[in-house]
Design brief:
Elements lengths: L9 E4 L34 E3 L13 H14 L12 H10 L4 H14 L4 H12 L4 H14 L3 H12 L4 H11 L7 E3 L2 H6 L6 H14 L3 H11 L3 H7 L11 E4 L1 H10 L4 H13 L4 H9 L4 H14 L1
Antiparallel strand pairs: 1-4, 2-3
Helix pairs in contact: 2-3, 3-5, 5-6, 5-15, 7-15, 9-10, 13-14
Length: 318
């Protein structure tokens, strides 16, 4: 897909898993403008639909802003509860204060904010607090949780991460080794008409399809079983994922805007490929930074894992 040909804003769905571990992929055939930049297609096999295939963005770009408006409205209508409503036991609060007295207020506030922002399931809140009571630093736990949330990592990885950090390993190395030890996610290839059939099922959305695909990849639970379970149980992905020990609780994938003009500008000034520019925008959203700053770091050779570790350490360690 040549994104320079796009004359309108498009909506790019954030990469599932480690930042762009999956690449920026397109789930072809979705009736709504669900876009991720892509570099591959299944044109050689017209009898199947590869979810990394190209989408005819020109015919859908005109509706992209409407979709974004809907997302914005939904976000505004579902504001999270204030941190004052978060309940943390006195024992846990005392241990957080004892572990870092000078920064205890900041650490407690950061923990409460993460519980809200990541909509942490009680199961994983209990795990974080169990580890706090074992004298692991809350700031390390929050950094580990941020990464694992993006990576669709599992509960057991949380303790493994903080133990590696306490043994002297740097966060960027921990992240890189995790990425190296886990197979790179690629969206599944659907048979012709399968996506259309899935989207015709009442109660199943394009987000459900992509999340089920990602969860299936992580857990080896068959994709169809996840979709069937979603329909039969009416569980949220937060509940379903918790049952599989996956810390990511999102029921819908976040969106970020990127224009053809921006793609064109940064491919010229930063000498990055279109794919790399799109990846930079996604990464910037994940670490709450301006895209141009992330692009400059990538241009100078800084790895995505290093960028994540730098920003989350700054956020949680000050």
């Amino acid at each position: 897909m040549n994104m320079r040909k796009i004359s309108h804003w498009v909506v790019v769905i954030l990469g599932l898993g480690i930042t762009l571990q999956m690449g920026l992929e397109v789930y072809s055939g979705f009736p709504k403008p669900t876009f991720l930049g892509s570099t591959t297609s299944d044109s050689a096999n017209p009898g199947s639909t590869d979810t990394s295939g190209a989408v005819n963005t020109a015919t859908r770009a005109s509706t992209a802003e409407t979709t974004l408006s809907g997302i914005t409205a939904t976000t505004a209508a579902n504001q999270p509860a204030p941190t004052s409503e978060i309940v943390i036991s006195q024992e846990v609060l005392d241990r957080i204060r004892q572990s870092d007295p000078a920064n205890s207020d900041r650490n407690i506030a950061n923990y409460k904010n993460l519980l809200i922002k990541r909509d942490v399931h009680p199961k994983f809140k209990e795990e974080v607090e169990r580890l706090v009571l074992l004298n692991h630093r809350i700031s390390d736990l929050l950094i580990a949780y941020e990464f694992l949330y993006q990576a669709y990592g599992q509960k057991q990885d949380l303790e493994a991460f903080v133990r590696q950090k306490e043994a002297g390993k740097a966060w960027d190395i921990i992240f890189q080794e995790y990425k190296s030890s886990h197979e790179e996610f690629r969206p599944r290839t659907f048979d012709s008409g399968e996506l259309e059939s899935l989207m015709a099922i009442a109660g199943i959305t394009s987000d459900d399809i992509m999340i089920a695909d990602r969860v299936s990849f992580v857990t080896a639970v068959p994709f169809k079983d996840l979709i069937k379970g979603k329909l039969e149980s009416s569980k949220s992905w937060k509940e379903a994922n918790a049952g599989l020990d996956i810390v990511n609780s999102a029921g819908a994938l976040p969106r970020v805007q990127i224009s053809a003009e921006q793609i064109n500008r940064y491919t010229q000034t930063a000498k990055l490929s279109e794919q790399q520019v799109a990846e930079a925008f996604v990464l910037a959203t994940k670490v709450d930074e301006k895209p141009e700053i992330v692009i400059e770091k990538l241009r100078t050779g800084v790895s995505q894992e290093t960028i994540m570790s730098e920003y989350w350490q700054q956020k949680y360690n000050g």
